[in-house]
Amino acid sequence: MPITIMGDREFENVPSIKSKALRINLNENIYGTFAEIGAGQETVRNFFRAGGASGTIAKAMSAYDKDFSDAIYGVEDDKRYVTEARLKKMLSYEIDLIEDRISREKHPNKLFFSYANTVATIDFAKKYKGHGWIGIRYQVDPNEAYNEISLHIRFHENDARLQQNTLGILGVNLIYGAYYKYDNPKKLLRYLYDHIDKDQIEIDTINFSGPRFEKVDNRLMSLQLVKNGMTDAVMFAPDGNNILPARILYKKNILALRGSFRPVTNVNMDMYKRSLELFIQENKVEEENTEVIFEITLSNLRAEGEIDERDFMDRAELLCSLGQTVMISNFQEYYKVVEYFSRYTKERMGLAMGVNNLIDIFDEKYYRHLSGGILEAFGKLFFKDLKVYLYPLKDQETGEIITSENLKVHPRMKELYKFFKYNGKVVDIEGYNPDILDVFSREILQMISEGKTGWENMLPERTASMIKDQKLFGYKEHSLQDKT
Q1: How many CB atoms lie within 10 A of CB 199?
Q2: Which fold has domain 7-216?
Q3: Which of 157, 281, 376, 434 pairs with 188 at a CA distance of 20 to 30 A?
Q4: Rounded distance, CA 135 to CA 115, Å?
Q5: Is 129 helix (H, G, I), strand (E, B) or coil?
Q6: What are the backbone angles phi and psi of residue 271, rounded to the nearest 5°?
Q7: Every domain range in the chain assigned CATH 3.90.950.20
Q8: Overall average pLDDT of the 125-131 stretch
Q9: pLDDT of 15-55, one tens digit each?
Q10: Measured in whole angstroms, how far is the alpha carbon of residue 2 from the centre of its chain?
């Protein structure tokens, strides 16, 4: 049997796609419909070919013509077809049909499902590789409400037929996992890539809902996507829920702030406010078309070599509670962040950072894997008039305020730094609050865990309250704070 290369499954025997489809077909209670738009009936054909499909497939259809599709599922407000809203309409419509046409009294043990996808494969010019939405609404108990798993994919293969085949495999893995791995969503997620290589397709959003997934935190599942290398980045809206990156970044001006935000401090928020003021003054940057992203790299989420998921939850919730959009990424280098944003927009971009971060950017060790070294990285970083908005640093020993004018990079990088500095690529943030330059998140974190007082004033008011109420970052209600 084939061997997968997904993490802890590396040495396991993995069922073939035919075996998975056959197991579903031979389950006398699993019964439902397939509705696939945009890439042929690639998923359902695996079930037809496996044998024994007559007891499983109620209906298989492809509503390719737009007018015909609209007549069945209705017209979307935005007139688009490859959307999450379209997917959900397809799932709801098909489930309602099953419930209406199949008697529960006659079939009391049937587990109904509706599988759907709406995708756009690569175009003839091979400029846009395509993307899509895939989902299943289904029962694991006939007397229980429906569960739902939906995900967004981005194709990476350069041939439409290859993309169609990969989509069909992913569909089988999803249906199989929904029925046989629902009790372990993390494993279900990894098994989606059985017989699929990560460079074939990317899953950048996934959501679970329904009675069997009541305890599933979709933000943590998104973290698994990044952790498992299934996507480079995931995003969370200010309401704390998963959001499709393309939805929030498409054709937007983007200002990004990278940090550990452990916890988010008054310095972080001052940097955000001052850099945004500068960014919206740039040519062709309109505030209403600007998105601010607080980015946390995966390397900053590691504790003793593993992802501390509770820690991730805490940071994401604190930032979202302040009305911010959060991105978790696999990017170590800043130029990769810019390349990622460039997938979705050609508008202006800015990066807000502290002095130490800028000094790190000019460290050659981060670019040894590039054939063009640091020059190649900087070519990618500073294209399209990107600017760095630099927040000052106070030297803890001398009290000196360090800005772009007096910071020190490696001697070999001195002239390169001058080139970017004096060509307007690095802009000092002015109007900052000098009273908070002594605030450092690592010191606040230590104060919290040791039960010391005074850290509350270094954080946004709501953040301090949440840390106490939810006992985050090692805060203890009966700590030394309560004894003073």
Answers
A1: 9
A2: Maf protein (3.90.950)
A3: 157
A4: 6
A5: coil
A6: -60, -45
A7: 7-216
A8: 85
A9: 999 999 999 999 999 999 999 988 778 999 999 999 999 99
A10: 30
User: Side by side, which strands form the sheet with 426-428?
Assistant: 242-243, 233-236, 325-329, 290-297, 253-258, 349-354, 387-391, 426-428
For 34, 178, 180, 355, the CA distances from 184, given in Å and listed in that order, are 25, 10, 9, 44
Joined tokens for residue 436: 């908070």
Q: Is the peptide bond before 392 cis (omega within 30 degrees of 0)?
A: no
Which of 78, 100, 75, 68 shows the shortest CA–CA distance to 89? Answer: 75
Helix then strand count (H, E) for the chain reads 16, 18
- The length of the chain, given as a count of residues: 484
CATH 3.40.50.620 residue ranges for the chain: 246-436
Average pLDDT, the chain: 90
CATH no. for 246-436: 3.40.50.620
Q: What is the DSSP string of 241-255?
A: SEE-HHHHHTT-EEE
Q: Output the pTM of the full model.
A: 0.88
Instruction: Evaluate whether 55 touches 25 at the Cβ level (below 8 Å).
Output: yes
